[in-house]
Write a structure and sequence with these properties.
Layout lengths: L20 H4 L6 E4 L3 E7 L2 H12 L3 H17 L8 E4 L4 H7 L3 H13 L2 E2 L3 E3 L10 H8 L3 E3 L6 E9 L3 H10 L5 E9 L12
Parallel strand pairs: 2-8, 3-4, 3-7, 7-8
Antiparallel strand pairs: 1-2, 5-6
Length: 205
């Protein structure tokens, strides 16, 4: 009979589970980034959380995307923020990323998150960049995304912007920068923040 194993350590797990109880303890490590607006991170891009995100993004395991988003929702409930009629949007992927993956990871998260809270999702941003952010250095990421994210519809007054992994902050910063004159309140929300070997974008604001 086929045995289900933890994706991180290989221990036996029950049917429908992705990681064991021990490894799941390393998923939830909340942190907070100050940028144009506050950005909240459910955990860090390392250990079991990094493995789960990679399995979600690159092996198209959408069940893991839903699993992680449900944990993100629990984290969001613990954050003390202003109560408004929020819209939910997401950091866009460029054409080549969408073509290779077949989906936009941040949109999967945004859809699930919005459904759990009864909020509306809007496809507010579109990427015009031609290079994948993951393949670029810190400075290259900033140049690649600068002025390459465009608005596709009217901007709501209260907005939550979702992303999967926050690395340098360039993409999230650009999204927030182009809507800052039109919103009354905005916040960012991500599954994970990466430990990047250089200055992050919010530190340069």
């Amino acid at each position: 009979m086929f045995e289900h194993r933890c994706l991180n350590c290989g221990a036996k797990v029950n049917f429908g589970e992705f990681i064991c109880d021990n490894c799941s303890m390393f998923i939830y490590e909340p942190s907070h980034t100050k940028s144009i607006y506050d950005i909240y991170h459910m955990g860090y891009y390392k250990d079991s959380l990094a493995i789960l995100i990679k399995e979600f993004k690159y092996n198209k395991n959408l069940k893991i995307g839903k699993y992680l988003t449900d944990i993100l929702c629990e984290y969001f409930r613990s954050i003390d923020i202003e109560n408004h009629d929020y819209y939910v949007s997401y950091v866009p992927s460029n054409y080549f990323s969408i073509y290779n993956k077949g989906f936009i990871p941040a949109k999967i998260i945004a859809d699930r998150f919005a459904k759990n809270f009864g909020l509306k999702v809007i496809n507010l941003f579109k990427s015009k960049s031609y290079k994948r952010q993951a393949s670029l250095s810190l400075n290259e990421r900033h140049k690649n995304i600068q002025k390459k994210i465009k608005i596709t519809t009217s901007i709501p007054k209260y907005l939550i912007i979702v992303d999967d992994v926050y690395t340098t902050g360039a993409s999230m910063f650009e999204c927030m920068n182009i809507i800052k004159k039109n919103v009354d309140f905005c916040l960012g929300l991500t599954l994970a923040k990466a430990h990047y070997g250089g200055d992050s974008f919010e530190e340069q604001v």
